[in-house]
Predict the 3D structure of the following.
Amino acid sequence: MFNKQIDSFFDYLTYEKKYSVHTITSYKNDISQFLRFINPNAESFALTEFNYQQIRSWVASLIKDKIAPRSVNRKLSSLKSLFKYLQRQQVISINPMAKISGPKTPKRLPVFIDEHQMEDLFAKVTFEDGFNGMRDRLILDLFYQTGIRRTELTHLKELDVDLFNSTIKVLGKRNKERIIPISLALKRNLESYLQVKQEQNLSNPMLLISEKGHALSDQAVYSTVKKYLSQITTIQKKSPHVLRHTFATHLLNNGADINAVKDLLGHANLSATQVYTHNTIEKLKKSYKQAHPRGD
């Protein structure tokens, strides 16, 4: 399906941009879908022949098939990256994406869990006895107290935990490292977990493992989080990323500097962090309406 120039683009994403396997797979799927739309039977493509009318027709077909605007825009983002790369490599002289704009998407605020519900999670929810229960509690504690992503958590090694300095080292997107401070409570939980792990001769260097000593998969972590969040909240989405949203929102609600939150989350741009301030503003509006004599 792909030619040398497009294969080169994927090599660029893999080795220079350091994109994850999941992201590159999404790019490949999006670009393959576009190429099949333009010519379902073609085995090769002349990249210089693509034009913005073809892309607009593809967008129209996606919308007609009731593909969500957010998904359409993601597909366009894949094409935009491809044609920008091809233009930079002088494979094409005119970028056909220059006249393309995607469908408008409704603003979607990050979903998060209330503070009192998070208190209930650690104070009232019963975790099973033994190693698995201790590990599950630590998983939730790490998500809530550090805001790390699921893949970042499953890739944590014991060596990434610095108990002396009360920090953990996280390898984020594009292999960018960041240091996150941990609280005294989280430090003690880590100490207890590591001690039990050692006592049970679980020598796997990964931090979070199964009772049999195997590294945890992303799906296993997702299932664990969903299991316990289901006991404290009725929100529809109960994922590790919700705990990341919760971490950021609670920090901002309690007066944290937005630039500090940006660094803790590992965001490249402040705009990615600013989405959490909308939740803070909504909380202020609610407090204003409840407390001010003429707030109604």
The radius of gyration is 23 Å. The mean pLDDT is 90. The beta strands are 161-162, 167-171, 177-181. Residues 115-289 form a domain with the hpI Integrase; Chain A fold (CATH 1.10.443.10).
